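Hey L., structure's done. Input below.
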Amino acid sequence: MGQKVHPKGFRLGVIEQWDSKWFARREYAELLHEDLRLRKFLKQRLYHAGISKIEIERAANKAKINIYTARPGIVIGKKGAEIDKLKAEIAKLTKKESFINIHEVRRPDVDAQLVGENIALQLERRVAFRRAMKEAVGRAMRMGAQGVRVCGTAGLDAALDQAMQAKGPFVVDAWIRPGEAPLRQRFAQFYAPTGEQEKA
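Output:
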């Protein structure tokens, strides 16, 4: 079997930074689970706002949360009403003083996480999977991406599903790979997010 290394882990400390920046000894597990809960909550609560990534920084009893979003207006709300609600909800989860910073993603068509979630959203709306993937890839290439790799897996097309079931295990892989995607070059910016679609 090939040895798979996550592209972000491979580039940490070279061109990539950690999504959580804090140090702990005894309470490490507790803080790690708190980070995971925060990320899950924010992703679900702000899914429609197009969240690209969430960075968490901690110092003493304070937490600074940086949210990178395609639609900052939705997160902030009218006169900051939504952000105040969000702060109150986060305070219940963490029981620490928290600060929220909203950063706008300038080019959402080139952001890998947002492209993946967009494809997943189209699949939920019953758009043909190859069409959804080709359109997203085409937009990314037009906006200046040097290369894109998209892989759709499991249960994408009824005809393919039947063919695969006849052969054996139920897995369908559909790849689209225009341009260059240098996995082994540490100085090449390469992002590998996932977008999940609930199968109806």
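Residues 107-200 form a domain with the Ribosomal protein S3 C-terminal domain fold (CATH 3.30.1140.32). Helices lie at 7-11, 28-45, 72-76, 81-94, 112-124, 129-142, 158-167.

-- N.
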